[in-house]
Amino acid sequence: MPQREERVIALYPGPAGERPLAGLYLGHDLRRRPRSGWPFFCSNFVASLDGRIAVSAPGEPGQDVPPAIANDRDWRLFQELAAQADLILTSGRYARQLADGRAQAILQIERPAFADLAAWRTAQGLARRPDLAILSRGLEFDLSPELAASFGAVLAITGQSAPAGRRAALAAQGAQIVLAGEDGVEAGRLAEVIAGRGYGLVFSAAGAEVLHMLVAGGLLNRLYLTLAHRLLAGTDYSTLAEGPLLEPAASLTLYSAYLDPAGLDGAGQLFLAYDARPGGAEP
Ligand SMILES: NC(=O)c1ccc[n+]([C@@H]2O[C@H](COP(=O)([O-])OP(=O)(O)OC[C@H]3O[C@@H](n4cnc5c(N)ncnc54)[C@H](OP(=O)(O)O)[C@@H]3O)[C@@H](O)[C@H]2O)c1
Fold first, then answer.
1. How remote is the CA of residue 183 from the centroid of ligand 1, in Å?
2. Which of 83, 155, 172, 218 could be a cystine partner for 117, CB 3.0 to 4.6 Å?
3. What are phi and psi of 141, to 5 degrees?
4. 42 and 224 in contact (C-beta within 8 Å)?
């Protein structure tokens, strides 16, 4: 029986009661979502009560996930989602931060702590690792051998306007260059190329701009949101979705809710999941 600290309280749907933290999102069994030959897109965020997913760190360029809300319990669930995927989406910004030593590996199922997730993929008959798609307009990053070794295939998905020199450089480093739009990636084209390559379950680990594209383009099926019970304030930050006002606003319906009272040194957090396109039907 897991220790009390390793458990969360299921709030919705009923019946309410304690559940082990480990296995919570594996139990969502995303690979059994209704299939129509069209990919199922999910994304994941950890946010503060005031909606921050990234803040600027003193003296550092750009933004990072706030250390005050990043935590191992949320990271366990992130790994459970990533481990289920056929394809993981990230951004050119991530590839640059990884090269600078400012980002951690997305998929960590090779670590002893997540050995059960590697075994789970094997038991499902899946490839040892999912593929990775790096979305970028400028392709201003390099594909390091470490990043390439962490995934199956690595796709660099971009628009027609991407510099030819950068396309050639990344192709020489082993990336598959995929064009899915004109000035950057367009949602409809992205879905077509992903479906055309036979990917069923797509997990986006990217941030606010990519989430906006997935929602505005009607692609997002499931949003996982860890709501950390902390307020951060600050003036230079990102929130979940950034881009033009969504009109009409995107409605999401609650799929599940768990309270993690032991998280964040007892401040706690909510593990929330929302359906954006119930049933995952093809647009
Ligand atoms: N708290 C959380 O759970 C959470 C989750 C994810 C990310 N974050 C944080 O949010 C911040 C931003 O992350 P992110 O850069 O992954 O998020 P993002 O805002 O979704 O992506 C931005 C980058 O992705 C590329 N991109 C976005 N839309 C594109 C399009 N339509 N076509 C082509 N390329 C496109 C561009 O790369 P190029 O510049 O290479 O063209 C752009 O710079 C980071 O600090 C990250 O740590 C937090």
1. 16
2. 83
3. -155, 165
4. yes
Look at residue 282 and tell me whether its pLDDT is greater than 70: no
* Residues lining ligand 1, Cβ inside 6 A: 45-46, 53-54, 63-65, 91-94, 135-138, 140, 158, 184-185, 206-210, 213, 238
Q: How far is the CA of 186 from the centre of ligand 1 (A)?
A: 15
Q: Is 118 helix (H, G, I), strand (E, B) or coil?
A: helix
**From 45, 49, 79, 136, mutation site for ligand 1 pocket: most ligand atoms within 8 A of C-beta:** 136
pLDDT digits (tens, 9 = 90+) for 203-219: 999 999 999 999 999 99
- In this structure, the strands spanning 253-260 and 269-275 are antiparallel
Give the alpha-carbon dihedral of 117, 122, 127, 128, to 10 degrees. 50
Q: Long-range contacts of range 96-100, CB-CB < 8 Å, 24 or more positions apart?
A: 96/140, 96/141, 97/62, 97/64, 98/144, 98/147, 99/141, 99/142, 99/144
Percent of the chain that is helix, strand, coil (3-state, to 5): 30, 25, 45
Alpha carbon nearest to ligand 1 atom 34, residue: 136
Calculate the alpha carbon distances from 142 to 92, 94, 193 in Å.
9, 11, 22
What is the pTM assigned to this prediction? 0.96
3-state secondary structure of 281: coil
Q: Each residue of 224-272: pLDDT tens digit?
A: 999 999 999 999 999 999 999 999 999 999 999 999 999 999 999 999 9
* Distance between CA atoms of residues 177 and 40, nearest Å: 22
Compute the distance from residue 281 Cα to the ligand 1 centre, in Å.
26
